[in-house]
Amino acid sequence: MFFRTSSVVFMSLFFFQSGAQLNSKFQPAALGIHVGFNDFKNIEGNSNFQGFSNLKPAIAISYLSGVSHKCDIIGMIAGSMVNFTNKRGGNYGMGDNKLLLEVDVAVRAKLRTYPAILNPFIDAGIGGSIYDNHYGAFIPFGVGLQVKVNARAFVLLNAQYRMPLTQTEDHHFFYSAGVAGNIGKAKATKKKARQAIQMPSSGTLPPRDIDGDGILDSLDRCPIVPGFSKYNGCPIPDTDGDGINDENDSCTTVAGMLKYHGCPVPDRDLDKVNDEEDLCPDTVGLISNHGCPLMTDTLTKQVNTAAQNIFFITGSYHLSPASYPALDDVVRILYQHPVLKMDIEGHTDNIGSETANQLLSENRAMAVLDYLVRKGIDKERLHSTGYGASLPIGDNATKVGRSQNRRVVLIIKKGK
After folding, report:
1. Residue 270: band (very low, low, confident or very high) from pLDDT cuts 50, 70, 90
2. Beta strand segments in 88-200, E
3. How many Cβ atoms from other residues are within 10 Å of residue 337's Cβ?
4. Most exposed of 190, 250, 264, 404 (fewest Cβ within 10 Å)?
5. Model confidence over 389-415: pLDDT tens digits?
6. Which pLDDT value is given to residue 142?
7. How much of the chain is helix, strand and coil, in % rounded to 5?
């Protein structure tokens, strides 16, 4: 394909006189303002349509400019108040709406050239977000329609699916409708035919450089592809064929990704589950368990030992400082095993009324849960229950038995 194109250009040097003609125009630079909606319910994986009752409104501004007859670059900044979740299903907002700020840059491929009245397009690009000091990245792609209003203004309608690149993002749709106005003049392309080259009177042809890279064809190992002198007229090589040239590739012999400078996705704990798919990226685990280790008897014993060292100030549900080391051990275990969940049970002896004992056991279990949450454990992984004096393990008629019954039980289990 390229050789045929180059041949046509070369032959035109002999048969066309200099001149220029106006071709179709590019989209001029334009600014727009949009009303948008974030849709976190009708996401990938939902088998049933959830409706539009949970759409979160947003406002956005955009800048776009043409780069060819049917291709534009568009950038958008959008903000909305949402209760945001991450890719693992964790809730950052904890029930509160906070500002989600998203920025993306995309390429629009249009069906018709500017300034068509109705011009459908598809778009794809790269984007980033910030939510409550959490940064994320995503890939937006979608479809849209540009509707001409007059010579300078037009309406933009767009629907995008935003696929997360980081664990701090979540799958969602983004719909927008807005009005944009040109702030620049339409650019026009010109086709120029070159003057015919006059043959030297001696009848010999001058030295040639077909690809125009400044290296004569007689010295150019890639005479029809522009290149560099350090590579003998050829382009910068891409040894591993990953689309990243060797000068920008940190792993020239292994195919990788641009975001990792040409290297494969890293695997910090070397458990053969890459960090983007590993739920325990710093702990060696199993492929079948998403990169996390299986729950063991040793782990259960560690949790049970910690539970035996949880104490409260007498007659209350306030944790004694003596409990903190044991609870911190539980926090460490839950951090190292993010696929685990935990049930927290509170129990009392039979001294006092049944109602008072039930309330005390619930409050003590909740106090343990609150401590773990304050230390950074996702509340969705925890569940607390109070049983009062209904499940004794000792004889309430003795002091030792009552002491055994006043306890907190921690039960770990694998999350879904």
Report:
1. confident
2. 98-110, 118-131, 134-148, 153-164, 172-182, 188-193
3. 22
4. 190
5. 999 999 999 999 999 999 999 999 876
6. 95
7. 20, 35, 45
Sheet holding 340-347, edge to edge: 382-386, 340-347, 407-414
Looking at residue 203, the DSSP 8-state letter turns out to be: -
Query: Are the beta carbons of 179 and 62 closer than 8 angstroms?
Result: no
Instruction: At 337, list the tokens.
Output: 């095993």
**Cβ 369 vs Cβ 380: under 8 Å:** no
Element (H, E) at 86: none
Confidence of residue 201 (pLDDT cuts 50, 70, 90): low
CB atoms within 10 A of CB 370: 14
| Token reading at 176 | 């927008």
Query: Cα angle vertex 91, ends 85, 96, to 5°?
Result: 100
CA distance 238 to 271: 29
Tokens of 204: 């010999």
Enumerate long-range contacts of 284-289, CB under 8 Å, 24 or more apart. Answer: 289/339
d(CA 343, CA 369) in angstroms, rounded, equals 9
- Which residues touch 213 (CB under 8 Å, ≥6 apart)? 220, 226, 227, 228, 233
Contact 89, 45 (CB under 8 A): no
Residues 6+ apart with CB under 8 A from 370: none
Query: Would you state the structure tokens that stand for residue 37, as one six-digit string?
Result: 């909606």
In three-state form (DSSP H/G/I as H, E/B as E, the rest C), the secondary structure along 120-133 is EEEEEEEEEEEECC
**Which tokens sit at 91?**
């809730």
Helix (H, G, I), strand (E, B) or coil at 291: coil
By the 8 A CB rule, do 32 and 156 touch? yes
The overall pTM is greater than 0.70: no
**Which helix or strand (DSSP H or E) is residue 94 part of?**
none
Q: With pLDDT > 70 as the criterion, what percentage of the chain qualifies?
A: 82
pLDDT of residue 307: 95
Classified as helix, coil or strand, 411 is: strand
